[in-house]
Amino acid sequence: MKALICGISGQDGAYLAQHLLQQGYAVYGTSRDANSARFTGLEALAIRDRVQLSSMATNDFRSVLQTLRWASPDEVYNLAGQTSVRLSFEQPVETFESIGQGTLMLLEAIRFSGRPIRFYNAGSGECFGSTGAQAADEQTPFSPQSPYAVAKCTAHWTVANYRKAYGLHACTGLLFNHESPLRPVHFVTRKIVTAACRIAAGKQKILKLGNTGIVRDWGWAPEYVQAMHRMLQMPQAEDYVIATGESHSLEAFVEAAFTELGLDWRRHVETEAGLQRPSDHAEARANPAKAARQLGWRAQSRMRDVVCRMIAAEQASPP
Q1: Which of 249, 173, 182 is nearest to 218 (CA)?
Q2: Could you list the active site residues?
Q3: What is the model's pLDDT at position 35?
Q4: What are the chain's domains?
Q5: E strands, the chain, in order
Q6: Which residue of 143, 194, 262, 297 has the smallest Cβ count within 10 Å?
Q7: For the segment 74-86, what is each residue's pLDDT rounded down to a tens digit?
């Protein structure tokens, strides 16, 4: 089996490549500029030499077609596009084009190929907005509250349309927050863990954050890529919510990180209004029962497990 991972340079791309290699796949991967991309995730997992890499612009149909011919994949995983919710408020056009238009280009190229390629699209729990006390499942209406979420909703419905109109084996995984040591430092979970470790080592005094009252469902990224793969092994393509089913406040995440290091977080954390998003949802809760029932997938790690593993990796990395 041959798999093409679009956006392989990110956290999920690296872990998915590792998982597929373990399953015996030949893995091909793309980024916007494979010659200059660092592929730090692939290097951290010591698999860069086992993956064939190429440049691909998802907004260029010719580039996408050429890439499909180059890899001739059985499965395509679309993880490409702008990944930061906060950055999407500053770059809404680039966010929409890279996610919404990029997904459309891939689907059209697969349709034009005439081959039975199976397609996975990286959706997001952000599509649901604030769920309140009601956990979101596959039937919950979308209520996007950021340019990123709007783009993800567009991609989701484009996939659903191609599945129904053209019979493509195409599905979307509505993944809630999932973290790992491969997260870039500008993501809040990695920012918290890095700062907590630096404070514990006497290299930093204060961590500044935005709204710590938000509630999210945090899982462990290496487990979530297994769900992606399982979706494409199903005889019929369907969409799935992927999450732990447990939600915690950002304050609880902060407390867990500082407590693990023997620190009182209240002495080191300050909130700053300038770090808050223009609009944000208060609570994100998820119901992954369908994934458990149909895919046999259940999250094994919870928020505190994630915190402890990220801290251990941070402390083990060179200064």
Answers
A1: 249
A2: 124, 126, 148
A3: 82
A4: 2-178+220-242 (3.40.50.720), 184-216+246-284+301-316 (3.90.25.10)
A5: 2-6, 26-31, 52-55, 75-78, 118-122, 170-175, 178-179, 207-209, 215-216, 219-220, 240-242, 248-249, 269-271
A6: 262
A7: 999 999 988 888 8
Q: Are 125 and 286 in contact (CB under 8 A)?
A: yes
- pLDDT exceeds cutoff 60 at 170: yes
Instruction: Return the amino acid letter for 289.
Output: A
Locate 179 and state its tokens. 């973290």
Amino acid 276: pLDDT? 63
Instruction: Give the residue from 64, 68, 168 showing the smallest Cα distance to 116.
Output: 168
CA–CA separation, 306 and 187 (whole Å): 14
Helix axes 102-113, 61-71, angle to 10 degrees: 50
Phi and psi at 44, nearest 5°, equal: -60, -35
Read off the pTM.
Answer: 0.94
> How do residues 31-86 score in pLDDT, each as one tens digit?
988 887 889 999 999 999 999 999 999 989 999 999 999 999 999 999 998 888 88
Say if CB 215 and CB 284 are below 8 A apart: yes
Cα(140)–Cα(21) distance, rounded to whole angstroms? 35
Residue whose entry in the numeric block shows the structure tokens 């954050």: 209
Annotate 243-274 with DSSP letters as a single string.
S-S--EEHHHHHHHHHHHTT--GGGTEEE-GG
Q: How far is CA 129 from the centre of its chain?
A: 16
Best CA proximity match to 212, nearest among 262, 266, 160: 266
Angle at 238 between CA 235 and CA 244, to 5 degrees: 115
User: Residue 61 corresponds to which amino acid?
Assistant: F
